[in-house]
Amino acid sequence: MAINTLKELYDLGEAPPLGYVPPRMHAQVIRQPRFGRPEGAFAREVVPTPAIGPDEALVYVMAAGVNYNNVWAALGSPIDVIGARTKVGEKEDFHIGGSDASGIVYAVGENVTNVRVGDEVVMHCGQWDVHDPDVLAGADPMFSPSFKIWGYETNWGSFAQFTKVQAHQCAPKPKHLTWEAAAAYMLVGATAYRMLHGWPPHNVREGDVVLVWGGAGGLGSMAIQLAKLAGARPIAVVSSPDKYEFCRRLGAVGCLNRKAFDHWGRLPHWEDADPMKTFSTGAREFGKAIWDILGERKSPRIVFEHPGQDTIPTSVFVCDSGGMVVICAGTTGYNADVDLRYLWMRQKRLQGSHFANDEQAYAFNDLVVDGKIDPCLGRVFRFDQTGECHQLMHENRHPDGNMAILVGAKREGMTTRE
Ligand SMILES: NC(=O)c1ccc[n+]([C@@H]2O[C@H](COP(=O)([O-])OP(=O)(O)OC[C@H]3O[C@@H](n4cnc5c(N)ncnc54)[C@H](OP(=O)(O)O)[C@@H]3O)[C@@H](O)[C@H]2O)c1
Asked: Angle 257-298-205 (CA atoms, 0-180°, nearest 5)?
């Protein structure tokens, strides 16, 4: 193609020639003065396309996935992600979020060998110092102090025409999926995979009862499927019977409506007899509801946690002796009250977990490639609805499963570059 036909800026859905990177791009940008309600925090701007380093790839984004982390980024709380980066010397005073994507590789750095220009890929969101001696020696990069979530803790995420990633983040796009479905699952899926397969000896196994909070949400819909694949018996907790069918289709053996109980929140002080009795009664009834589903007095060997403050006392209470409560978030708050008597006498484990390493993300992606996991795409949005879908998520009014945004893909339903 003659050089004078190449443009500085391309419209959304108008792909530049393969391998040509225009100097400017459209992006959904968060700036500090706009921090607040997600629907007002994102705005479409034209910004310079980022340059890549030797271990990086530049990917033309076909679709982007929506996650809770950019609700937090939009709110500017609990962390001002822009302030945190400018404080350590980064020059951009804006945030381009987006920690999930499908797209086409347009450029690679000189050290990159795992992907080439033209490859159709999905990306996981784990970044770390790839030259960290501990990582090179085989340590789990999830424990590296350099670990960051791309598109939340880093800039240049997927809510833009081009995204800058470390090449190891790329994995093959499942060919049978549309761009939007392929963009929807990796962050929640790989996180759920590490939670259920990454903490031996509590790896999920055949026959295990697994209690899954938010069973119809992003993480929960992946956890139900992973537990089912392992031959376990997942039980979903949701906020309305309307969500039961969705969870059952994914493999839940039963569902609980959390609104039928009212003992949620922080654990009362153990010396306050009446409030403690109210909690214990509620938690026991919740545990009994689990047994009723199973038809036997069997408690969850694994409790899949992320609501945090409001639910963790109950999670620890209902977890089986020798079982594990594995937690990756505190959506309702960060204070974890644990009645230590149950923790030590019944020898339970409370395990933190955060995203996933390459092996775990690739292993999860293989399950999707093989058609064993449904990405559970609930709704697709236009690029200019980036704020709107994050607002729905903030208000817990989003559809069951996961959401995606069309970026480079001209329309829904495309599975490859046309
Ligand atoms: N550390 C990590 O690597 C990591 C990775 C992914 C996500 N996360 C975090 O995990 C959390 C959930 O993410 P997600 O993508 O699954 O979000 P999501 O799709 O919004 O699902 C969360 C579910 O939690 C349930 N929920 C809401 N309020 C609740 C409450 N008070 N008590 C019990 N359940 C409640 C909701 O289901 P019902 O209303 O039906 O109960 C909702 O569907 C977010 O905070 C996110 O930032 C962390």
From this structure: 95
